[in-house]
Design a protein that fits this description.
Elements: E1 5-8, H1 10-17, H2 21-35, E2 43-44, E3 53-56, E4 62-68, E5 73-78
Parallel strand pairs: 1-5
Antiparallel strand pairs: 2-3, 3-4, 4-5
């Protein structure tokens, strides 16, 4: 099966710039080897974010993304904390 294409939103790019080099490497691996191959493994969010999925990057940081089946693309929206830091 062909992996999904991964795209980062402007907000995710800003988040990415704040990550340590070690976390950037971990994120890249997770996106390429996990999310791109099996995008629905993340936790499906509820409420206003019901079309979004979340995966744990660190204890407090999450990868938040949506899946567009029509274009076989994953849009990464956030790659930082959701605790307001």
């Amino acid at each position: 099966m062909k992996p999904y294409e991964i795209r980062l939103t402007r907000e995710a790019v800003k988040d990415l710039a704040k990550l340590t080099p070690k976390l950037k490497l971990k994120l890249k691996g997770m996106l390429l080897h996990n999310v791109a191959l099996t995008p629905y493994q993340g936790k499906r969010l509820v409420g206003d974010l019901e079309d979004f999925y979340s995966l744990r990057l660190t204890f407090k940081d999450r990868i938040v993304y949506t899946v567009d089946e029509s274009t076989h693309t994953i849009y990464v929206h956030r790659v930082r904390t959701h605790y307001g830091d």
